[in-house]
Structure formats: C-alpha cells, structure tokens
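Job type: complex structure
Entries:
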Amino acid sequence: MEASAAADFFLSDDVVALSRKLLGYRLYTRIDGALTGGVITETEAYRGPEDRACHAYQNRRTPRTEVMFHKGGICYVYVCYGMHHLLNFVTGGEGLPHAILIRALAPLVGLDTMLARRGRTPLMSGPARVCQALGIDKHLNGHPIGSQSLWLEAGNPQGTIVAGPRVGIDYAGEDRHLPWRFQLR
DNA sequence: CAAACGATCGGCT
DNA sequence: GCCGATCGTTTGC
C-alpha cells in the first residue's frame, strides 16, 4: 500500500471499523536491509478523546501522544514498561487522536531474521513481540505507513473474526469492557 | 527534582 | 496463575 492509499484508508473517523478491516492485511518492514512481514491477525482500537483506555483520552496532548493528533496514516510507536515497543497506526483526520494497536501477526517472510531477533519463543503473538520481530522501535514514531521501511498490502481475512475486550487496560473504568479487540481465528 | 505508573513478557509455581 | 524486570513518560511538589 502506497502512502497516499494508506492515508485515504486511515482517514476514516471510525477507528473501530478500521481495526476490524485491518485484519488480513499484510504488514512488512525492511529494517537494516532485512525484509520481514506477516498477516495482521489481532488489533485493538483506541478511540481518542472519549476512550479512557486511550493515551489521548480527553485530548491529552503530551510529547508522547503528539503524533496521535496528526492526520491518519502514520505510525505511533511508544515504549511500554520501560522495555517494550508497541506499534499503532494513527487514524482519523488532523486533530482526532485515534489509533490501532497491532497485537499479532502470522509470519510470512523473513523467518530467519525474525527468529534471530526473537529467539525461539512465540514469534509475533503480542504487541511487543511484533515490534521485536519486525525490528520496529521509536525511530518509526510518526513515520508514514507506506514507505521503504514499512508498508501494507491489502488482503482478505481468512477465518472468523472474534471481538472481545482489550488487554491490559483495567484502569479504563467502564471502557475496559468495550469489545474493541479483534482477532482472526 | 522525585515518584508513580504502565496498551508486556518470560520464567516459575 | 503469579511475579519481577526495567525505564520512558507523566505528574506533582
């Protein structure tokens, strides 16, 4: 997916629908010359101002959340628990801080590279594992989706889509029950 | 400046 | 199922 196409796709203000639609897409990176990629099999939607689980809840704007307020079609990468990188796709128009967390991929290419980066534990099931396998870190924060380093290809999801509550957001009050986690099974 | 807190993972019981 | 690792980010004094 080219940058312009990615921009159109991610410009919708319905981040929940987009999270579901993203399942089955293929995500690739070429980092340090190594091609890696897989099919997106799990996502979560974070719906900006009104979502207590979202970093940009109530339009909270900090150096970290700044890129979430940019126009959709770029990456939001941040560090979690001091040691893990997590990848999101920013969606929505300028000023609307929505994002989609990429939680899991099914491996496609670059198995050797991903194994070398990850060791032999599960390759890409878990948002930090996805980033480690694909070589993603903060240097891709704010980076366009659709570049030499990171791009998408459209694909149709195979299997059934299961929706459920999001992971690790018990602090979000009632919003923790929202079924905004989508998995391909 | 100090302190608390994670959109997690891996190891162990 | 539980627990510790580990540090960037945020907030409060």
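Summary: The helical segments of chain A are 3-10, 15-21, 111-118, 127-134. The first helix of chain A runs from residue 3 to 10.
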